[in-house]
Amino acid sequence: MPAATASPTDQLVLSLGPLRNSEFLSNHWLENRLPIEPEWRELRQRAQETASRLIDLWNAQANRVELYGDEAGLEHAFIQPVFEALGWKINTRRSSTAASLTTRCS
Predict the structure, then answer these.
(1) Domain tally for the chain?
(2) Is residue 105 in a domain?
(3) Cβ(66)–Cβ(77) under 8 Å?
(4) What are 37-94's pLDDT values in tens digits?
(5) Contact 89, 102 (CB under 8 A)
(6) Within a domain: residue 68?
(7) Domain span at 76
(8) Among candidates 35, 4, 3, 1, which has minimal Cα distance to 19?
(9) Which of 12, 17, 81, 101 is the most buried (most CB within 10 A)?
């Protein structure tokens, strides 16, 4: 029998937006414990700023993504800025378009 899927009305609403719990964590923890965790409070502003940057980037690039004629153009205009917004440092090798990703120590 296929697993039941949650409808949008089953989503919890947290301070950063809707959440669809796939039963990985308990609803009690998500609703009551997560908001009082120090990391949640400390990183909330940074997470909201990052989400805003990603939304702005997508809004600017959404109609252009399919029009990039080559992978390097798409990587430079969209993919690299996404990784950078998420805190990854991009090291592009000059000999190819492949990028090496390393996490940035904070």
Answers:
(1) 1
(2) yes
(3) no
(4) 888 888 888 888 999 999 999 999 888 877 887 888 888 888 899 999 998 887 766 5
(5) yes
(6) yes
(7) 63-106
(8) 35
(9) 81
